[in-house]
Amino acid sequence: MSDTLPPMTPLTPLGSATPRSDTHGPVTLTEETGTALASYSARLGHEDAARAALAAFVGHALPGPGASAQGDTFGTLWMGPDQWMVSAPHDSHETLAAVLADTAGGVASVTEQNDAWCRFDLSGDDLPAVFELLCPFDLRSADAGAATRTSIDHLGCFVITRAPDHVTVLGPRSSAGSLHHALLTAMRAAL
After folding, report:
1. Looking at the domain assignment, is residue 124 inside a domain?
2. What is the CATH number of the domain that holds 157?
3. How many CB atoms lie within 10 A of CB 159?
4. Lowest CB count within 10 Å: 63, 92, 99, 116, which one?
């Protein structure tokens, strides 16, 4: 019976075989599917060892509150006291969580997040005008690496400033369609 079933095809969070890209005015909204994610939380009493293990693994200083950091391969996003989201290219690090858990050696709890989040990147001019309609994160005064957890259209999201003209939004994958609609609507309203 299994010989008659069609092969499984992975779908993007928006339900397509290929990532979606929309441009309105000077801003492009892109569904980004090439990122592996893992959450990393220090275990009670092992905070210093957990921080040291993660910093050694990613190869850069760990960001503090309201910040993210990006190295050559790995990115880190501060999520709370002694908690970070770690990112890497999916093609080369699909098993990021398993490798990170082995590296942590029991001083941190690691959970795979690949299918829990969707990622949308916005690039172009006038991004602050778009985000003023979406959430209370002041992009006009944010430097590269600034990040926050906020609500966009009643969805808990992370907003990460990569550069003045490049912002990443991480949101719940189960609400990818609603988040995409909110981002695209704000682009059309602001520009």
Report:
1. yes
2. 3.30.1360.120
3. 23
4. 92
Q: Is 155:73 a contact under the CB 8 Å cutoff?
A: no
- Do 121 and 178 lie in one domain? The reply is yes
Residues 166 and 133 in one domain: yes
CA distances from 141 to 60, 129, 135, 144, 161 (A): 24, 12, 14, 10, 11
State the residue for tokens 């069609």.
6
- Which tens digits make up the pLDDT trace of 2-23? 677 778 888 999 999 999 999 9
Cβ pair 108, 120 in contact under 8 A: no
Q: In what order do the strands lie in the sheet with 35-42?
A: 68-70, 75-80, 83-89, 35-42, 108-112
What is the spatial distance between Cα 163 and Cα 114, in angstroms, rounded to a whole number?
Answer: 24
C-alpha span between 26 and 12 (Å, rounded): 25
Question: In which domain, by residue range, is 79 found?
Answer: 35-112
User: For residues 73 and 63, what is the distance between their CA atoms, to the nearest angstrom?
Assistant: 16
**Assigned token pair, 158:** 């992370």
Low-confidence ranges of the chain (pLDDT < 50): none
| The three-state (H, E, C) secondary structure of 47-115, written as one string | HHHHHHHHHHHHCCCCCCCCEEEECCCCEEEEEECCEEEEEEEHHHHCCHHHHHHHHHCCCEEEEECCC
